[in-house]
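Worked example (supplementary).
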Amino acid sequence: MEETNANYEEQYEEKYKEYSENVLTTLNNKDMDEFREVFLEMHPYDQAMFFNEQSKENRMLIYAYLAPNELADVMINIELEETKGFFMEMDPRFAAMVFSQMPADDAVDTLNQLDKDAVVSFLTIMDKDAANEIKHLLHYEEKTAGSIMTTEYVAILKSQTVNEALLHLKQKAQEAETIYYLYVLDDDKRLVGVVSLRDLIISSDSTLIGEIMSENIVAVSVARDQEEIAQMFRDYDFLALPVVDFQDHLLGIITVDDILDVMEEEASEDYSKLAGISETDRPNDNAFSAAKKRLPWLVILLFMGMFTASLIGQFEQTLDQVAVLAIFIPLIAGMAGNSGTQALAVAVRGLATGDYENTGKIKLIFRETATGFITGTVCGIVISFVIFFWKDDLFLGILVGVSIMASIVVATIAGSLVPMIMDRFNIDPAVASGPFITTINDIISVLIYFGLATTFMAYL
Amino acid sequence: MEETNANYEEQYEEKYKEYSENVLTTLNNKDMDEFREVFLEMHPYDQAMFFNEQSKENRMLIYAYLAPNELADVMINIELEETKGFFMEMDPRFAAMVFSQMPADDAVDTLNQLDKDAVVSFLTIMDKDAANEIKHLLHYEEKTAGSIMTTEYVAILKSQTVNEALLHLKQKAQEAETIYYLYVLDDDKRLVGVVSLRDLIISSDSTLIGEIMSENIVAVSVARDQEEIAQMFRDYDFLALPVVDFQDHLLGIITVDDILDVMEEEASEDYSKLAGISETDRPNDNAFSAAKKRLPWLVILLFMGMFTASLIGQFEQTLDQVAVLAIFIPLIAGMAGNSGTQALAVAVRGLATGDYENTGKIKLIFRETATGFITGTVCGIVISFVIFFWKDDLFLGILVGVSIMASIVVATIAGSLVPMIMDRFNIDPAVASGPFITTINDIISVLIYFGLATTFMAYL
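After joint prediction of all chains, the assembly is encoded as:
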């Protein structure tokens, strides 16, 4: 399998190595012309990779050798968190020019990383048109349509012909984020239709746009959540989606490449939350900031764990008499935690992908209850037999088996119920992390286990 | 916020309701012409939603009223798992025609859901060209480039002019999956360049393709893993990517709409695995198949838990003498599990998104060790004080505090080390589920806690 890969893939990596070595040589020679020739031939993503690997000294040379629009291409391909430092080390006037050359949505994302003071000064020295566009976008809340849209779209009129539209497109093609959809506006800038470039290409030159445009427009409100928008892209296979205000004025468009980033971001977030990390960890974070992101949950869980401990403390008498009971505490609590986490993951993921909109949430709760009974019964019977043969104590086996069964049933129901309830109250269900559900289920299982043990003490 | 949404979004939902009611009326009236008129005006995704809601009786009417290519549009918008039943209830000849009208990659995905017998019979009665294309794609392994690519692309020659290419495009535009990239082949069908429709639009008619094509092609090998391909789309903002064999022959293309599905699928899978579910649960699964997907991990964890229990059993003497020790078992094991899961999630997600390729894995292990020391020290000090004030027992407080600190440090290192090692041996690190790490960390923490307790027994 590996050998068949000796094609474009490896060639590409080799090419990158070769290119980047060449570019480095030109930098070392301080040869601007040569640098521009080799560097600008690379894909902007590769340019960004190269840029990222450079020392501050080399970066300073690159700032001097590139035009603002060329550096803008590099900057939009760098991880957002890292751009801050780069912009702060550039000459402010040059940085402002770079900002004005970036697609407005990317510029806004980057500016959102900076201190307010810096943002204001950049906006002041920036080209006025670009500054206005950015100021406009800066108002939109994070993670809404407004924050991920761009204003670089192609708009045409209903009364234009295909030929006129194509000519207009040729002019706009360089700066527009997508030319594959053209948005048809009325005189009031309201969105009335959409034409795909595909439709344009296959129509004759003199056809009116009004005849071929689709009026069956799917548009999103500027305040719409980005996760829902990602789902629409997935369902309807869009390449771009228009964003409108409450009067259907076209404000901008969202393109599929930004949606790929949104999906990655949302998946990482959900994943981190399931593991009990408030914010997604970055590989560049140092240990202190990584610890800061994890400690909130850990401390909450510590106190919840103390509560579990004090619960067990209530049964100290039982424990004093039958010390062997302690042996099975982690097993029972662990199994409750595990089955609860499974149920939680199914429910949260189902809610996130919208899978339950049709099938119904009540149905899921019933199914989870039944699933809990099946898994609980299987695990309970297995453990009863194992303990019976190991400890030669039938009653202990049954006690642990029944406790595990009951704990799994309750934990499974809790695991699916908690995110459903959160969703009902419009709280993001992904906040219900695995460790949180696990600790709740620790408490439930300890109560079940020691409750049963204390009740049937006489038989132990 | 909610009120500003009274625009296209709500209109769209209302429109869907209105449309679907109209369509339903035409079905009830058995009015084929009216049905076709209203139904075919809906977006294929909405058609699929409507189709999905129908009784078998109504579905039979729909099969009779629609042409194979029209039904194909509906079928590619239905969840893969559900299509099986629909194709099996159609007349086999009609079903075969529908398959031959579907994009080949979607047809293959659907056929992969069916029994081998059914696949063979469909392929036999199908249109020969379509059957050959599908047979060809059926050979590719699941989750590789080959399995998600389509063969409906537009190929041109280096020697053609822009005008000739545009004319060729007009002919192919209807059936091609994307017309936004045109692939340039040599006489031997080898990929030598790519031209975007954008480049074509802005060039003059008589320009040669060879002059405007980009030779800096990014292509993937047919055996490449789909997750890596998704990452390339995200990094390079592609709308489509060519797939080649080891001699650079163009075999097909992958389009961004399929990548959105891949990303969703991979995110769901990673998420499920973190929670210890072998396969992603489906909302339509019944309780038995849901239980079947969860039991493997649960039973493994049950036996691992038994091992933990037998370990604690080794310390029964210690427990008999100081029963209060048992109270803190779930707390210490729980904290180890929680911090281990956090570290695991960071490492797995980082590996999945390729974030560590540049920064280095060794560096991460060091950072995690430092993070573990910080979180462990904080939690250890907090718990020592709480226990000291609660139980008025300084030594017990220190014992639990030190145990928690040591457990968190070891668990954090284990949480990041295990996925790194798995990745090293080319095992998908996402397989290392949270519950698995949690149970390993249970064992480690119990050993630390009882080891310390037994050693310093005299002070308790």
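Two points are worth noting when inspecting this output. Residues 14-148 of chain A form a domain with the MgtE N-terminal fold fold (CATH 1.25.60.10). The first strand of chain A starts at residue 155 and ends at 157.
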